[in-house]
Amino acid sequence: MNAMQWTFVVATISGALALWMLLPRKRFRGRRLGSLLGLVSLGLFASQVPLPGGPAERTVFIVLAGVTLAAAVCTVTFRSPVYCAVWFGLTLLGVSGLFLFQGAQFLSVATVTVYAGAIVVMFLFVLMLSDPRGRTYYDRLSWEAMLSASAGAVMIGVLSMTLHRVFVPEAAPPAADANNVAVADASGASANAEATNVPALPEPPTSESLQANILAPEHVARLGGALFSRYLVTVEAAGVLLLVALVGATSIMAHARFEQLRRSRHGNG
Amino acid sequence: MFKIETLMVLIPGLPLLSAIITAALGKWLLRSRSHWPAVLAVGGACLLSVLLLFQVRREAAALHEAGDAQAAAHAVGYEKTYTVWTWAVVSRALPARATFGQQASETSHSADPPGTTVPEDSSTSADARSLEIGITLRADPLTAVMLVTVTLISLLVVIYSIGYMHDDVGYWRFFTYVSLFVFSMTMLVSASNFALLYVFWEAVGLCSYLLIGFWFTRPAAAAAGMKAFLVNRVGDFGFALGLFLLWTTYGTLNFHDTAAAPGILGQTLLADPSQYAGGWVATAICLLLLLGACGKSAQFPLHVWLPDAMEGPTPVSALIHAATMVTAGVYMVTRCTPLYLVSADAQQVVLLVGMITALLAAAIALTQTDLKRVLAYSTISQLGYMFIGLGVGTLPGIVAGMFHLFTHAFFKALLFLGAGSVMHAMGGVIDMRRFGGLRRRMPVTHWTFLIGALALAAVAPFAGFWSKDAIVAAISQRVQDDHHGASVALYQWVFWGSLFTAGLTAFYTFRAFFLTFYGEEQIPEEAGHHAHESPPVMTWPLIVLAAASVFVGWCFQRGQRFDHFLMQTPSLAFSSAQATLPAGEHGGHGNVAVVSTLVALIGIGLAAYLYLGDRWEVAWIARRLRWLYTISYRRFFIDPIYMALFVWPLRGLAAFSYWLDRQCIDRLVDWVGRVPLAIGASVRALQSGLLPFYAMAMVFGLLVLIGILVR
Amino acid sequence: MDELALLHGYQTVGAMLVGIGIVGFLARRNMIVMFLSLEMMLQGISVTLVSWSRFHNDWGGQVLTVFIITVAACEAAIALALVLMLFRRAGGLDVLFWQQLRESNVEPFIEHELPEPPAEPADRWPHLPPAGIEPQTEEEWHRSHV
Amino acid sequence: MLELAAIALVKVVILSFGLLTAAAYLVLLERRVAAWVQDRRGPNRVGIPLTSIRLFGLGQPLADGLKFIFKEEFTPSHVDRWMYTLAPISILATALAVFAVIPFGDVLTLGGERTIELVVAPGFDAGAIYVFALSSLAVYGVILGGWASNNKYSLLGGLRSSAQLIAYELPLSLGLLGVVVVTGTLRLDEVIRTQANEGIWFAFAQPLGLIVFVIASFAEAARLPFDLPEAEQELVGGYHTEYSGIRLLMYLVAEFMHMITASFLIVILFLGGWHFWGLTDAAAWGIEGEAVPLWLGVVRIVVLMAKVFVVILFFMLTRWTWPRFRFDQLMNLAWKVMLPLGIANVVMMAVVAEFEVPLTDRLGRGGVIGLTWVGTLLTLIVAALLVPLHSDNRRRSIEPDLFGTS
Predict the structure, then answer these.
(1) Mean pLDDT (whole number) for A108-119
(2) Model confidence pLDDT, tens digit, residues B268-300
(3) Taking burial as the number of CB atoms within 10 A of a residue's CB, which of A238, A263, B289, B530 is the most buried?
(4) Does a structural domain hold residue C72?
C-alpha cells in the first residue's frame, strides 16, 4: 500500500464515520465532529483529483462541487424531510451549475425546470400535507446507520480509487509482486494499464473540436438535431413512457379516490 | 340470374353471416329481435337452394341432351365444383416408403423452388402425393336435393322457433346456434372433399351438442349433450380412420378430379371402375365410413344418444335430430355408393345394421310413454329403413333410401313440431299418460299431427307411403333377382322384417296419436292457463309441412322425377351403369304396395282398437307378456349394457389412474418438490420484507461486482 | 482547460453523489427522502454522462441525460401516486410499515425503542419591544402601595 | 475576460437598481391607478422631504421603503426560522435572476466600434427555458414561506400558490412554444430580431398564443383575477400573513418583479420587443450597414420600455376591474381550457412552420396570418362550446358519480 492508497482508505473510513455521525439516530448525534470528519474526507478525496483549468475555473469548480456534495450530504442527513427536500433542491442547483460549467446549457436549465421546479415541489407538497412539523419517529431513526454509511462510503472509495487508477496511470500502484517492481517500472504506464485491465482512454478533445461540436454557440439547435435524428425512436419511446406514466398516476389516484368514496358510502365496510 | 358459383357460396354464406351477426350483436342489440337475421338468412338460403336446384336440373338436362351418346357411354352425371380458397397445402407429404432413399436423394439436389408443380414422372407421381385441402364446394343433384331439404326444413323450424322460444333467456343464443348449424349442414352437403366433409361433420356435431345442452342448467340436458358428443366420437373415430385409409389408398381426399390427382368419386375413376381398390381394403373403408354414419345417423350400436337428445328444445329435435343432421350418414353413404358397390360384404352389413335398427327401434317405440321419445325411436327406425334401402345394393334401393330421407324430413319435422306444439301448450309436460283428448283444444295441431302420423305409417297417398314402399319394393326386387344367390335368405328375411316393422310403425304412431288427442280430456297442472292452440307463427309451419307431407311423395314419385333427377349425380350415374339392375323397373310392384298398405292399416286398426277407449287388453298384455313389455319399455337394456361394458370399466380405470396419480406420481413429485423447499427454507430468513434490507443486499452485490471488475 | 482533469473531477463528483444517494436510500426510512436519494443517484449518473459527452465530443451523453430527466419525471409521477396511496393506508411515510411481503415465519422488524418525541417548544408569547415601560402586575402595584 | 466580467457587472448593477426602483414606483403607480379607477385621489402627499413640495406624491415609495426597512425585524416564535428567512430571499433572488437573459434593448454602440448587447448573459442559448426554470424556482419562496410561517392560512396560501404556478406553467410554456416553433430559437433577442426583420409582431401572427400567454402570465404573476395565493379576503394575505418588515418588502418587490418579468416577456415574445414600424428601423432613418448608432439603440430601449409600461398599465387596470376566480374555477381553466388552447396553438404553429413555403406561395403572408386568425376564432368557439361555464356558481355534487347511481 502506498500513500495514495492509504489516502483513499483513510478518506473512506472517515467518510463512513462522518455519515454515520450525521445520520439521524436515537440519541447521540455528534454533528460537529461528523461535519469535520466529512470535510476531512472530502478534502482527502479532493486531494487525489487534479483540478482543471486556471485559478478562476478551479475556484468555480470547487465551489460548485463543494456546494453540490455538501448539499447532498445534508439531504440525506437532515431530520426534517422538508429540509431534506430543500437541500436536494440546492444539490440540483449545484448539479445544474456543474452542467453549465461543462457547457451543457440546455441540460442545466432543464434540470432546474423539471427536477427543482416540478418534482421536488411535488414532494414538498406531499411532505407538507403528510407531516407538517417533521416530528415523526421514523425521521429520527435510521435503518442500520453504520452499515449503510459504510456501504456508501466504500462505494465512493472504490469508485474513486478506480477512477484514479484509470485517469492517473503513472500514479497507479506497482504490481502486487514486489520482485517485479523493476520490470513494472520499466514497462511503464501502458504495461501497467494492461496489467490492471484498464482500457486506454481516447485522446482528449481539443478546444477547437469542442467549439465545433459540443460547445457550439447554437447549442440547443445541435442538441435538438441529435435528439430528433439519431435518437428519434428513443424520443418517441420516452413520449410514450410519459403518457403511460400520466395515465398510470391518474388511475392510481382515481382508484384511491374510488376506494375512499366506497368506504364512505358503505360505512367503512 | 345468379351464376351457379354465386349460389354455391351464398347458400352457406348467408347463415354464417347471420350466425356472426347474432353472436356479436344478439345479446346487446338484437335481444328479442334476434330471429330476424336467422329468418332472413335461412329464408334467403332456401330461396337460393331452390334456384340452385332448378339450375342444376336445367344444366343436367342440357348436358344429357347435348352429349347424349357420349353421356350414355360414360354415364357421367352433372357436377360443378368451385374452390373458394385452398386451405392447406402440403406438397409431397408422404414419400413412399419403398422409394424413400431415392426420393430423398432426388429432392436434395433438385433446385426447384418450393411451389413448383410435382414432376410429371409417372413413376414418382404416385408416390409424391400432395395433400391439398381446398374449401371446395360442389353442386350436383344429390347436393341440390339435400340443400333444398335442409334449408326448407330449417326455414320452417326457425319460423316456428320464434313462437316456441319467444321468452327464453337464451333467445339470441338459440338463433346463433341454429344459424351456425344451417351453415355447417349446408357446407357438409356441398363439400367436395372428404376432409372438408369431416370438418363440417364435426361442426354439425358441435352444433348438435350445443343445442342439446341448450338449457345447460338442467343436468339432464347437459348429460344428454355430453352423451351425444361422446357416442358420436366413437363413430367419428371410425370415420377418421376411414379417411386415413382412403388417403393412403387413393392419395387424395377430393371427390372430384383435380389437376394433381383424380378424385375418389371423380369422373376418371368412375369411368374406369376397375381402378377402385377391391378386397379387404374396400370392405374396411366402407365399414369404417359406415361406423361414422352409424354414429351420426344413430344406427344400431350407436343409436343410444338420439333419444336422450330430446332434452334439447323441440324445434332443435325437429330440425337436427329428426330431419337434417341425422340424415348426414345416409347422405354420406349415398355419396360413397361407388365405394360400397365394390364391396358386397359391406353392403350386406349396411343392410343388416339398417334392419336391426329399424326393428329394434320400432319395438322400443311400442311402449314408450314420452311422446318425443316415441318420435325419436321412430326416427331411428326410419333411418334404419333408409339404411336398408342403401344396403339393398341396387340403384332403386339407394334412390329409394334417399327419397325416404327426403319425405321423412317433412313428416318427421311435422310430427316433432306438432309434439312441440303439444308440449308448449302442456307447459313442458311430454308424458302421454298425463294428458289426453286434446283434439278439441288444439285442432290445428291435431289435424296436422294426424297427417304426419298417416305419412309415417305409410298410408297410401301420403308421402311416407311412396318412399317406404319404394324401399320395400327394392328389397323384393332384389329377392327376385337373387333367386339363386348365396344370401337370398338374408334378403328374404329383411323383406319380411321390414314389412313387420312397417306394421309396428303404424301401430306405435297411432298409439301415440290416440293417447294424445283422443280419450278423456286430461290436462296436467303445469299447463296452467295456456292449454290452448299455439300462436300462428307456430301453426303455419305445421300447416305448410302437413301440406308437404301429403303431396311431396306423390309429386316427386310421379313419373319417377326424383329418381331421374338424382341419377344425374356422377357417382349414382356411374352406379346406374354398373348396377346389376337397370333403373326404371321401379313401380311394377303393385302387390308389394298393397301388402304394405294392408300391414299399415292393420297396425292402425290394432292401435285404434287398443287405445281408443279404455280396453282391458292393454293391461292384460302388459301383465301376461311382462318380460316382453319390460324389455321394450327398458329399451332392450342397451344403456345398462353399455354402462356395464364400457362406462363402468372405464370408470374403474379412471379411479385406478386417479389413485396411481395421487398415490404414486404425486408423491414422487412431492418429494422432488421438497428439495427446493428445503433449499428455500435455509434462505427464507432473507425474505424479510424490509425494502432497505433488499437494497442493502443489492448494494453489496454491486460492490462485489465492482471489486471483481476492477480487481 | 485540461479535459482529462475535468473529466476526472466530474466522475468523482458523480461517484460521490451516487454513494451519498446510496447512503440515503439505505438509511433513511421516510419514503420521500428515500426517493430523493434515488433521484440523487440519478443526478450522479447524469453528471458522469455529461462529462463523458464532453470528453468524447459527442451528444450521446447529453441526450441520454435528457432521457434520464424524462424517466425521472415519469418515475416521480408514479412513485408519488403510490406513496400517497401508501400514506393514506398506513398513516405514515415509514417504509417499514410495509413489510408484509416477508416469509410467514420471519419475525417482523419492529422498533422497540422509539426515540422521545422532541419537546414542543413552550408557547413563548412575543416579546414586547425593549423600548417602553414594562407594565406592572396588580400585585406589584399593591405591594408598592402598602 | 476581466473586461467582459466588468461589463456584465455594470449591467447587473444597472439592471438591479433600475428594477428595484421601478418596482418601488410601480407600487405608487398602482395605488394611483387604483385611486383613479375608484374615483379618488390616492397618495399624493409625500414629496421632497423637509419641504412642502408635493410632486404628485413621488416621494411615497421612498417613505414606504424606509418604513419597511426601519420597522422591527419581527420573527414569530412558532415559525421555522431558517426557512422563514430563506423563503423571501429565494423568491427575490429568482425574480431578479430572471433578468439575466431578458434583453432590455438591442445593442449600444459605444465609441463607434464597441457594441454592447443589452442582455446580462448574451451568449446563453437556452434563454427562454432559463426564464421558466427560474420562475418555477419562485414556487419555493412561496411554498416554503407558507410552510415556515406555521400558520394554516399561510400554508393554504402557499399550497394554492404552488399548485397554481405549476398548473399555469404549462400553458405559459405552450404559448412560448408557438413562438419557438416559428422562430426556431430559444434566444429572446433572436425572437425580437425575427419580428423586427419581418415587421410583423407575433401578436398578429399568433393571436391564440398571445391570449394563452397573457392569461397564463397573469396567473404566474398571481395578479388579479388569479391572486388566490394572497386572497386577502379569504386568507388574510396568504403565505405572507406572518411576514413584516424587510422580509415582507422582499415578497412585495418580488411580486412586482414578476409582473415586470411577465410584461417584458409579453412584449418580447408577442409585441415585437424594441421594434416599432418606422421608428426603430435603421433603413427608415437612412442608415446603411449593420451598425446601429448609439441614439438608435437608445430609441429602441425607450420603445421597449414604453411597451412594457403599457403592458404593466394593462396589468393594473385588469386588477381593479376583474373579480377573483374560485380555486376550482382556476384549476378548471388551467387544465381544461388553457392547456387545450395552448396545444391547439402549438399544432397550428407547427403546421404553419412546416408548410410555410407552399402556404406563403399560395396565399401570401397576409393570407397565412388570416388563416391563423380563422383557426384561432374556430378554436375559441369550439372551446366556448365544449367547456362548461366556469362562472356557474350553482351548488352541485362534489363527488364524481363513480357508481352510476344518480
Answers:
(1) 88
(2) 777 777 778 778 888 999 999 999 999 998 888
(3) B289
(4) yes
Chain A positions touching B706 (Cβ under 8 A) are 155, 158-159, 162
pLDDT at C122: 61
- Is residue D281, in this structure, part of any structural domain at all? yes
Residue numbers in C near A136 (CB within 8 A) = 30, 92-94
Average pLDDT over residues A186-191: 45
Which residue from B541, B453, B418 is spatially nearest to B154, judged by alpha carbons? Answer: B541
What's the pLDDT at D406?
43
Q: What is the distance between the alpha carbons of residues B78 and D3, in angstroms, rounded to a whole number? A: 107
A197 touches chain B (CB under 8 A): yes
CB contact (8 A) between residue A147 and residue B707:
no
Using CB atoms, which residue from C25, C27, C102 is nearest to B688?
C102
CA distance A145 to chain B (A): 11
State ipTM: 0.82
Q: Is the peptide bond before D225 cis (omega within 30 degrees of 0)?
A: yes
Please tell me the predicted confidence (pLDDT) of residue A269: 44
**Chain C partners within 8 Å of D163 (Cβ):** none
pLDDT at B96: 45
Query: CB of B133 within 8 A of CB of B196?
Result: yes
Angle, CA of B93, B99 and B105, to the nearest 5°: 80
Could A163 and C11 be called an inter-chain contact, meaning their C-beta atoms sit closer than 8 Å? yes
Task: Name the pTM for this structure.
Answer: 0.61
Whether B695 sits inside 8 A of C25 (CB atoms) is yes
D220 pLDDT more than 80: yes
At B69 the pLDDT is 52
Give the gyration radius of chain B's Cα atoms: 30
Cβ within 8 Å, pair D83-A132: no
Task: List chain D residues with CB under 8 Å of A106.
Answer: 125-126, 129
Task: Provide CB contacts within 8 A for B155, sequence distance 6+.
Answer: B39, B42, B43, B45, B46
Most confident listed range (A191-205, D223-237, D333-347):
D333-347
Q: B706 in contact with C at a CB cutoff of 8 Å?
A: no
Q: Which residues of C touch A69 (CB under 8 A)?
A: 13, 16-17, 20
Cα-based distances in Å from D260 to B333, B438, D16 = 98, 100, 12
With touching defined as 3+ CB pairs under 8 A, do chains B and D touch? no
Query: Of A164-173, B479-488, D174-183, which one has max mean pLDDT?
Result: D174-183
Check if the beta carbon of residue C46 is closer than 8 Å to that of residue A42: no
Question: Do A147 and A14 reside in the same domain of the chain?
Answer: yes
- Facing residue for C124 by CB, picked from D72, D74, D77: D77
Examine the pLDDT at A63 and tell me if it is beyond 90: yes
Inform me whether the pLDDT recorded for B191 exceeds 50. Answer: yes
Total domains in the fold of chain C: 1
- The residue range of the domain holding C45 is 3-101
Residue A97 above 90 pLDDT?
Answer: yes
- The pLDDT of B632-656, averaged and rounded, is 88
| Residue B317: its H or E element | helix B314-318
Overall residue count recorded for chain C in this entry: 146
- On whether residue A193 sits in a domain, the answer given is no
More reliable by pLDDT, B104 or A28: A28
Average confidence (pLDDT) over D316-321: 87
In chain B, which residues have their Cβ closer than 8 Å to the Cβ of C109?
688-690
- The total of other beta-carbon atoms located within 10 Å of residue D276's CB is 19
Say yes or no for a CB contact (<8 Å) between D77 and C125. Answer: yes
CA-based nearest distance A179→chain C, Å: 32
Q: Per the CB < 8 Å rule, is A151 touching B706? A: no
Domains contained in chain A, number: 2
Are D130 and D238 in the same domain? yes
Q: Closest approach of chain A CAs to the CA of C97, in angstroms?
A: 10
Give dist(CA B475, CA B461) in Å, integer.
Answer: 21
Q: Which of A165, A186, A206 is the last residue of a domain?
A: A165
Answer yes or no: is pLDDT of B491 > 90: no
Nearest CA in chain D to A100: D124
